[in-house]
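Open question from group meeting: does this chain pack into something compact, or does most of it stay loose? Before anyone orders reagents, we agreed to write out a predicted structure and look at it together. Recording both the input and the output here so the notebook holds the full record.
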Amino acid sequence: MSSKSTTEDATIEESIDSAAKTVGSVWPIHSFVTANPLSGFEDVPFGEAVTQAADLLGGRGYPTRETFRAALDDGRIDRETLDSELADRGYEADPETLLDRLHTDTESEERDDGGDTDAERVDHVLTKWLSAFLDEGHAKWSMPNRDEGFYAAFRGVAAYDGEVPDGVAKSLPETATEAIEAAVEPYPESQWVPVFEEQLAALPGWTGLIKQRADDEGPWQSAHPITLAEYLAVRLALCDGFGVEIEPSIGPGTADIDPADEIAEAFLSAWEASYRSAVVDRVAAESRSLADERSSAEGGSSDRPDAQLVFCIDTRSEVIRRHIEATGDYDTHGYAGFFGIPMEYRGYDAEAPVDACPPIVDAQHRVSEVPTDGETRERHDRWSGVREAAGEVVKTLKTNPASAFGFVENAGSGYGLALAARTLVPGRVRDLLGVADDAVPDEREFCDQIVGHQHTHADGLPVGMTREEQVEYAATAFELMGWTEFARLVVFTGHASETANNPYDSSLDCGACAGSPGGPNARVLAEICADPDVRAALRDRGFEIPEDTVFLAGEHNTTTDEIEIYGDAPESHADDLERLRADLVTARENATAERVESMGGDPSGSVEDAERRASDWAETRPEWGLAGNAGFVVGPRELTSDLDLDSRAFLHSYDWSTDPDGDALEAILAGPMVVTQWINAQYYFSTVDNAVYGSGSKVTQNPVGNVGVYQGNGGDLMTGLPLQSLMADADEPYHQPLRLSTVVHAPVERVTDALADHEEVTRLLDNDWLSLTVVDPTQDHRAFEYERDMEWRPLSESTATEPSATEPEAPTAPEREPAPAAADD
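Structure tokens returned:
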């Protein structure tokens, strides 16, 4: 190969990598991961980003005037704050007049001319073969030659596809790179990135999936490889065959900012500030009260709680935590739901392992369930085998074109009655299925998790973890939560959802576990902390764990609010555990009443209604998930324990007084805060423009390939959340589309130090993708808001004009040596 050709290949590869930054990663729907669809634009300010994305993807970046007007009328937008935001941008007209300048829903969604264009024919052919190639076990007949890669497989079938223009199959070069070189030869290198950006943006759902799949390098990618270069090669060849011009139009960064967007930015900022102000004021007030209580109790001893329960920081945990604390002497805490264990998990019956850690963290261990009780295992295998075989037979008969009609006809009234029962009395069906499931022993009854280091590897990961690693994971959990005291019972509680006939079920599971249930991670940490050698090592590190502390694991069903605690405690703690389980039943009743009422149901029968939603296969909204999320509070639970945050805030336990070096705070800001910003951005954009960034109504969706959903019978993969996860009705959003407001309880200088070594985090703050406010307990519990370039603005007017000698003004970034990176950075 000539040096020129090699150089050209490298330039094409670099151009594709650059263009791919504008495409957000999309995970398969069976492991739905909430992520910012505009993650590739986070290196520019939010206002510029949404303008560039609108030019490239066609999506709206701000709520509509109807949404803003409703928030203004309801008092969710403070008028004084709004006037200030508008004045800062040079607008003096009254808000109602300015609102009329904003777009309506209808105006922003009229994006195509409705014609059957040649570009649409390219999309039609391409998506047909993408769905066949990227299928993950759903299709009955697979696309041939998938093991050779997408480009080679397409070359093999193109000649037999009557929808592919004549000559395309014969003209395809041997390699994808050669096909791309031929397509871009008429254009200067300066246009290659814009060309690739527009071609990738034409089907952002499919290209986002390809991008993530190639980055992940999982088993499906290993078996059937595909790259963005292969995708572009096929697309560009089809464009040439259909006569579609690929010369780029106005590229990202060159579009003019719509004046209406400036007004919308003012309304959005005022709405966020109004929400944030209420949270900050309440946290600051609680901070003062907490300081007074600790001062008056100085020298005394605090009562030991009956139990400590650790939940995921998920907004849904806020509700159940309030109601648990109201039932007895219980402390609840918030920690990222993977419990700090970066693992890949394989259950006993699982066909393949799943990631059980956030997407920004690479799995470091394989943890698997291994049978230890042969007799119980045999009983499990026998019953579950019968059930699985029956299910496969029914599935095959229903989905095979040769047998589907005959199956329904021969099944007759029995099948019809089953369908009717699942539709009309789903709660009864759930009860019956629960009885059937009880006959099959649960894996936890006869399996242990391999937690200890096994000196073996699986798919490149070590099986289990060393003693030193176990101690580090436990110590990190206690350090991040600021724990110095331990109850008799400590329960690490993961979470999962329960729904029927729901393609988006994984979007309701634990986001910190990459859309998987969090119970396995809770079990691992509980087992680690129960190990006598680990406990001894933890005591050496200053964690005085009493001999009578028992560590257990559980899982919170976020759809029904049932909490299952795994296993039993020693006889010495049997009464404690029995009392806790009884109180959890009471907490569940009260929590479901609150949740069901928010969904328009009758709170008097809340448990039954929640269970119906979980089992009703016609239910499009089994639960609200993370809808409503707007805040992230980092601090002691006492700051929020008396507050009803309406299931809108992520809550991470943290005590600045136990973190003198700020290492724990640094880890929280660089880890959980970034993940919550991803979640928040997904909900925001899915709400403000569901047609582009969401996935439309579940009623008109069709699953494809076990990787995603279409709207209708084909086209691009939908990338975000469905309308039923966001809207109270057709015209009223349930989710309030606000950017994340983070509130941290710590000295402001310590927060500055924690941010100093994390450019990717400060870039998000500087570009207004989220906000950060600090309530400083060392400065009379005053609040400081991050502005940009590591500078802070005191929120008190008196502080802003006249800092006193006893109350120093907000600091800027100090000159210092870089601190060591956090362990999980």
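Observations to bring back to the group:
The radius of gyration is 28 Å.
The first helix runs from residue 3 to 20.
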